[in-house]
Amino acid sequence: AHHLHCLNDFVEAQTTYYAQCYQYMVDLQKQLGSFPSSFSNNNQSSLSGGACISVPTIPVSASLPSVSAGHTSSAASGGFSELRSSNSSRKARVLYDYDAANSSELSLLADEVITVSSVPGMDLDWLMGERGSQKGKVPTTYLELLN
């Protein structure tokens, strides 16, 4: 019982820490969005709407986005396999913020709607995303296909 109590305290401390980190990130996005457009680059222009971002409160029992193999296979069966076989494009809602790891990827903001399509030979965990003139790979676990 003592170990369970200590583990619960640890999880609560981690949750508080990550909520504070998220708040700092939102504050930084707001500051970057307030710079004059002459100082901002293409990536920062997508952050200019940062003032309307709300910080969620995360209960201790909340499940965080998972990139485990089990989660990927269930996401792949949720319409993604149809998209791959049809070679067409569809709209998708972004479930979580995603920061691109390199220039071939597209950064995402939660709740935005982007166009996604399949590229032959691409890893099954990724789709090609498009927002305006920006294109890049996006992880399927961060997306929900729309009708």
UniProtKB/TrEMBL annotation:
InterPro entries registered for this protein in UniProt: AH/BAR_dom_sf, Endophilin_SH3RF, SH3-like_dom_sf, SH3_domain
SUPFAM superfamilies for this protein: BAR/IMD domain-like, SH3-domain
Domain SH3: 87-147
UniProt KW Nucleotidyltransferase keyword: no
PROSITE patterns found in the cross-reference section: SH3
Keywords assigned by UniProt, alphabetized: SH3 domain
Top-level taxon of the source organism: Eukaryota
A Pfam family the protein falls into: SH3_9
Keyword Repressor attributed: no
UniProt xrefs under SMART domains: SH3
Protein name: Endophilin-B1
Source organism (scientific name): Characodon lateralis
Gene: SH3GLB1_2
